[in-house]
Each structure stands twice: as C-alpha cells, then as structure tokens.
Amino acid sequence: MEHEVFVPVPAERLREVLDDPARVARVVPGLQQDAGAEPVAGRLKIRVGSHSVTYRGAVRVSRRDDDAYGVEGEAEESRGSGSVKLSLRIALRAAEDGCTVVYDGTASADGRIKELPADAVESAVTRLLNRFAEHLAAAATGADDEAPTPPPSAPSGQGTDAEAEEKAPADPGLTEEPPAAPERPSVFGADVPPSSLGPEDEEDEEDIAEAAHARRTMIGRSAEEVDHAPPRGRYAPVPAPQTMTPPAPLRWAAPAAALAVASAIVAVRALRRRR
Questions:
Q1: Model's pTM, two decimal places?
Q2: Residue 191 confidence (pLDDT)
C-alpha cells in the first residue's frame, strides 16, 4: 500500500502533532476513544461502498531514527469475528508551500472486509488516508482547537458495542447518510376558503345536510352494513305501488254464490216440469 497526499503545512508543524498521541487520536477520522484506554484506542467505523464495518482496537505511533513514523495497529470487528492488522510508515517530504505525506505499509484482514470488492476497499482506505492528512494539517494550524472534541465513550464494562456504535457519530468523509426527508405540510393547518354558494342555492342546503348526515352515520360501521344500508334523503329509492289482493275466503265466495244460484234455478225448473 502506497499513497501520497500534499498538505499546505510545513513538515515541522506536522511532526509536533504526530509526536503527541492525544492529538493523533483527534485527527483519526471517525475514531471514538475508549475512556481510560490508550490515547489512540477505540472504535472506528469505515464505509465500503454500500456496507459499513466497525472495528475496535488500538494504534501505536512512534518516531523512528530517520524522522519517519511507524504505525502499528490491531483491531477486531465489533459485530463479527473478523480482524485487521496494520503496519504503516508515514514520512514527511518537504515540498514547495507545504509538504507531502507519504504512506507506505501493509495490511491484512479477514471477516466481512474480505468479502467486499477489492476496488471498494481500496477506495475506502484511500479516503481514510486523505482525511487523516487533512485533519493532521488542520491540527497543525490550530484549526482543530476551535472544533469541540467528542467525549470519550464508556469502557467495555458499561455498555455493549452495539449500543456504543449506534450512539457514535460518524465522520462525514467516511460515511454517506441519506439526506433527511422534507417535512410535508399538514392539511389541518390550511385555511378554509369561503363558501361560493349564493342566495339561489339555499334551497339545496337541506339536501346537502341530509347527505352529510348519511355519511356520518356510516362511519364506524362494517363494510357489509354500509353496502346494505339504504340511502336517505333525496337519494332514497321510491317504493313500488302495492296491489290489493283479497283474502282467501272472499276469493272463493263469489264462485260459490254463483254455483248456488245456478243450482236453485235448475231445481226450480225441474219442479215446474213435474207439475
């Protein structure tokens, strides 16, 4: 792994920061320090493409005889069995109007990070090194003194890693959170426009009131009741005219009477013939 980043800050100013472990911990992008642990120890969340992996470990920075700095680190996944080891050399090369931060080293990892695409992992590491150089330059110029320092997180005995990961703020250069959705206006706060009904429409107000009452009575009722509920007001169906049907005894009285009259006439004629 080799990478170079130019910063508009003299090398001597950068060495002042690298010689102080506490200031180095503040320039590591997204690092959440553990209370009571080493200065450069805690949790670091890295975003690789659409995935994010959180590691927990420690890094040691030491100055060498050639004025370069050696970085040795080990970390494990907070939600998995993967781990990563880092051996890095940081050299400061003088340049015009600043210096060049030269990274050279090796890293080995297993777990979730090994299953991700190699180009996405390389892009995430490059972004991390660029952000580290930018924060290092800001700390050397005193710009980081104005920004509030995030409070150290609780030790491992006072909370789980999952709770700490949810509460830990992410570095803007490492994670890409979706923008917040705009708040939708509420219809309950809208002004009601004035009525457009004129004097000639007053006769329809009673029908409108009946229809509104019918709708209100349907609220809270089942769908079956609403489907079979008869409409009211002007929408009510007109009942069909009913035909009057005589009762059963009266219906047979007329034929019986006619039969009795006919029988009497036949009997009278028979008696007359005998005489």
A1: 0.53
A2: 62
